[in-house]
Amino acid sequence: QVQLVESGGGLVQPGGSLRLSCVVSGLTFSSYAASWYRQAPEKEREFVASVFSPGDRTNYAGSVKGRFTISRDNAKNTVYLQMNSLKPEDTAVYYCDVRDSSDYDYWGQGTQVTVSS
Predict the structure, then answer these.
(1) Confidence check: pLDDT of 53 > 90
(2) What is the pLDDT of residues 83-112, one digit of tens each?
(3) ∠ CA 5-10-79 to the nearest 5 degrees?
(4) Which residues, in sequence order, are bridge partners of residue 31?
């Protein structure tokens, strides 16, 4: 059974930082791309960042490029999202995603990030 478990969300002031983690089990994590998405209230889920394997090539949404960094540790079956210079518009539930070779997406349960003073 594939499981993705996110952690690290919380309340942070504008300009602050958070680091999200997602531990993946039940598949060969090192074989697949891993991504972060987010969904704000009353908005559709949107892409944030991806990291591929092997090679660790990354992609970012324009709204987070230069502020967020995605990384992975295949030995720990974990993907991270380091978020710096956070803005109120980054407030959302953040979801971890792994896409397998059949283009099937596995999702975590999400972790809430709130940026507010």
Answers:
(1) no
(2) 999 999 999 999 999 998 899 999 999 999
(3) 35
(4) none
d(CA 89, CA 20): 17
Statement: residue 64 has pLDDT above 90: yes
HEC readout, the chain:
CCEEEEECCEEECCCCCEEEEEEEECCCHHHCEEEEEEECCCCCCEEEEEECCCCCCEEECCCCECCEEEEEEHHHCEEEEEECCCCHHHCEEEEEEEECCCCCEEECCCEEEEECC
Give CA–CA dist 80/27, Å, rounded. Answer: 18
Q: Using DSSP bridges, classify how beta strands 92-99 and 105-107 pair: parallel, antiparallel or unpaired.
A: antiparallel
pLDDT value of residue 11: 98
Cα–Cα distance list, 60 to 65, 76, 86 (Å): 6, 23, 15
- Specify the amino acid at residue 95: Y
